[in-house]
Amino acid sequence: MAVLAINQVQAQGKKTEKATFGMGCFWCTEAIFQRLKGVVSVKSGYEGGTLSNPTYEEVCTGATGHAEVLEITYNPLVISYDELLEVFWKSHDPTTLNRQGADSGTQYRSVIFYHSAEQKASAEKYKAELNKTNAFGKKVVTAIEAAKPFYVAENYHQNYFNKNGSEPYCRLVIQPKIEKLEKIFKAKLKN
């Protein structure tokens, strides 16, 4: 009986879950979640549109309905979905409709694609609390939608900051986001 219980605990420890967030350009946000303890992998991609297997060029037109998103695989025994939501809310401006910084269009919308009823409830509760407390000084416009087919972005979009960190865009736009993460979420970062 004890062996069975140990095997069940070990199996639960290996279990991963997915979270999918759109919060502007995936180049800018992928590196944030990659640094969190408990995050197993982060894939940049597209979700929420009508076209199967869209390309970056197609998504950039804004005509496909897809958002640039991150599909995050994480271990819920190390980092909870609520903790991922906290990083999500604090790492972008959820009050701007179809815009993050200089990026404009529906492909840059703030969106949570939930994978379970629990994720939906957590996201809706968190959003309601942010709006109730006027946390951002404006209404949060983040969409909360059921997960749809996720399409992995082209290889050159994957691990972008880690491969191109010395490029001007990375230093000027992404590096400040990493520095903010390191200040606010230091205890949640991988060593």
TrEMBL record:
Any Pfam family hit: PMSR
Per UniProt, the keywords (alphabetical) are: Oxidoreductase
Q: What is catalyzed by this enzyme?
A: [thioredoxin]-disulfide + L-methionine + H2O = L-methionine (S)-S-oxide + [thioredoxin]-dithiol; L-methionyl-[protein] + [thioredoxin]-disulfide + H2O = L-methionyl-(S)-S-oxide-[protein] + [thioredoxin]-dithiol
* Matching InterPro entries: Met_Sox_Rdtase_MsrA_dom, Met_Sox_Rdtase_MsrA_sf
Q: Name one GO molecular function term.
A: peptide-methionine (S)-S-oxide reductase activity
Its biological purpose: Has an important function as a repair enzyme for proteins that have been inactivated by oxidation. Catalyzes the reversible oxidation-reduction of methionine sulfoxide in proteins to methionine.
NCBIfam families, per this entry? msrA
Tell me what this protein is called: Peptide methionine sulfoxide reductase MsrA
- Supply the gene name: msrA
